[in-house]
Amino acid sequence: MAKPGNMAIDGADPRIYDQMEKELNAPADQPPPHTANDGASVATATAASAYNRRDFKIHDPTVTFEQYYYFAQQTRAEEDAQPRTGYDTTIWSLFFPSKSDGGVKRMPAGEKSEGVIAEPGHQRMIVSDEEWTNASRALRTATRGAIFYLITTDILGPFGLPYAFATMGWGPGIALFTVFAALAGYSGFLLWEPFMGLDSYEYPIRSYGDIGYRLYGRWMRHLFNILQSIQLLLNVGLIVISNGEALSQVAKFKLCFVVCCLIWAIVGFLVGQVRTLQKFGWLANAAVWINLICMFITMGGAAHSPPNYAGAASSAGASISGGALITPDANGVFPPVQTSGGIPDTGSFVGSVSGAMQAIFAYGGSMVFPEFMAEMKRPKDFLTAMWAAQAFIYFWYMFYGLFMYGYQGQYTVNPSYLGISNYNIQTAGNVFAMVSAVIAACLYGNIGIKVMYNNVFVELFHAPPLTTRAGKWAWVGIIPVYWAIAFALAAGIPNFSGLTSVVAAFCILHFTYTFPPLLSIGYLVKKMAMREGDGYDPATGQVTRSDAGWVRFKRGFFSRGRWWMNSLNVLYIMGALALSGLGAYSSIMSLKAAFANSTTTSYVCKSPLDG
């Protein structure tokens, strides 16, 4: 799995974990030469411990919730004891993060540090408990300021929000976006709490799927990984198509549209060859400001020039009143810009629900929140960074969406920077948007390929790890295939907003609004079900549970102090599933109508924005 946190700073090499996982997951017929700890465990701080990290695999079904929870408490206590500068405690550290000092401080070695040693007679390498936990500490380098930038960089939603307001109207649009923002902040907390209770230096959480695995089992991990792979693949495709549209505008439609898209697919072939993201730190920070610059340029263009009437067929008005609001009269004069206080007349709820999916798209970064927390020196600080980022996103996205809707009304297109008619301003916005999109493509493509490769090819088909020579060559070969598939999928769908609605309904909505409460329920039930005397004993390696089955579940779910939260989360899940169903139906119907109307795909020379 990729290490997004390393985009913000020059941290430790994330491939350390890849090598250790390879060693720890080696076949059981090659047992390590040592069967007991040679020194006191760092995490347990006991004189003698039955715990030995080498006895377990990364995804080991024999490791219980109680073990994960025990070591997580030890890790949190160690993190709280780490010294922190006064600057790290100020609000300015969020917006102007200092360069990390290289990760969590290593703990002193025991009587004898094995390090990484070769087992006699075997090619397998053995990792000592101390080396494993110290390597885990070294990889945690990100500060809350870095996470703030990563969250705001990761989310690609601002340029679709004006389209959302155009299909929902002022009142419903503001209300829904506010609700989505509040719930996204709540969902971030629901992801943070299980992470804090399950992640440790001994058993680090590295992905969304790891949390699902520890609470519900292997099937949940596979479900998360599959949906995450689909979302990242389609996001890469969306970047290819949106940049293709922007490039076609910059070229004044003199360059064949499919060639414009193909150019960005080729760019992806090249930038995708970077396997680690730790050298892209300044780009991650710059991408936030690049997006803001693009937003300000677009707003200036919308305020001082008419809408881009040539792209009216791709605007929100195409789904309002049968397209009457964007149809020119006999003299070729287009109707004036119009806005609506309530839901516009779209003929059905499909158009408005599709607009709501664009608003949800703004909060698609929750999918990689666990990856961000996994890179933090103090995951406890994630809440501050996440809530600050959500507030930043809410304010600027809302302002931008309402501003653009007020000036362009029904002529708003998705993405909105394509709707500027003045060529000079249009080109400036397009250039900044393309640069920002390339940075996002580096992130999405890298993570997406690693999710697919590590969880499908390595785990199921025993492909060589990416740290090996064969794995590096496999990476080189997979990159063009991955980007080609992303291009083919996105280019074959004739409705850009319909495609973003599909991604939002089937993937983003679940990672942001369905899965967090589901994980929270699983975590709280297991945690609150533990009675006094239950838990993991590091001295004996035994797990004690007073009971099991329905009685234990009932006690955990209806525990005093958290029963209301579990009940609220059940309603939250049901609401999210209902909205997902509506979103899936509306996006499918929108795409069906686009195909029925013989709307062209991207496999043509004429740009969809060229009349």
From TrEMBL:
Keyword Zinc listed: no
Q: Where is this region: Disordered?
A: 1-40
Keyword Ribonucleoprotein recorded: no
Give the location in the cell. Membrane
Q: Where are the transmembrane segments?
A: 146-166, 172-192, 223-244, 250-271, 283-303, 349-370, 382-407, 427-453, 473-493, 499-525, 563-585
Ranges in a coiled coil = none
Membrane topology value: Multi-pass membrane protein
Q: What is this protein called?
A: Amino acid transporter transmembrane domain-containing protein
Q: Which organism is it from?
A: Sporothrix stenoceras
